[in-house]
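Shipment paperwork, digital attachment
Item: protein structure file
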Amino acid sequence: MADDRLKIDKENLRIQAVNIKDAVDQYKQFGQNPFSEEITAMEGMNTDFIAKFKVMLDDLDDGNSKAIKALEEIAELTEEILETFEKIDEDAAASMGFEREE
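Attachment content:
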């Protein structure tokens, strides 16, 4: 008979949550508005190509901002999931008469 119980590796989940948060923080350093200097440099240029290129860079900046926001939400949700699993584990242990280990 297969074991259908949910098995959670809380320590690994904790490590992954930290890794996600660190990756997001590192990406933010380089990915937040990466083309802002280029866009500013094009402000005085007036050609069809430059205007279209500027729109493309604006879209990329906007896309990166949205991606960063989504990644931050994933990192937060991962931490919430970990906290929820820990609470469920503690409640289950308490209902069986076990005390929490420090």
